[in-house]
Give the backbone structure.
Amino acid sequence: MIYQGKAWKFGDDVDTDAIIPARYLNTSDPKELAKHCMEDADPEFMQKMRVGDIIVADKNFGCGSSREHAPMAIKAAGIACVVAATFARIFYRNAFNTGLPILEAGEAAAEIKSGDELRIDTMTGRIENLTTGKTYQAKPIPPFMQELIDDGGLMAHISKKSKTS
């Protein structure tokens, strides 16, 4: 899958409370969660970002609690993809379970700035910074994980498989 959008840069250790503050966890409605995506990291994020944009972060993105609300909020907000130097392991798995594409790419995460226009091919792991002309290589998303994304997450994938069986 190829995604193209504006980069929104965040630093190290962006935890799940910064992604979706705990005060909003009384719902699991993705549309409601999306309204508050990244609110504690950047209170104006939802007013500034556009559907199809890309979050770029440094190391340990999604650390903290193991709630699926964090990748769900990002996906529902319309973020196409997240690129980070590293992800907290539970966030990594939850992202695929909710159908949110993510890529680990340390050099890209270090060099990309907010506002850069990016084009990302998750099948090859190629990240192009259209603003600077620089290209980066992330590890491609494995085919099974890409299937989860294409199907809209783990539950949708299981539902699809059970209907074809």
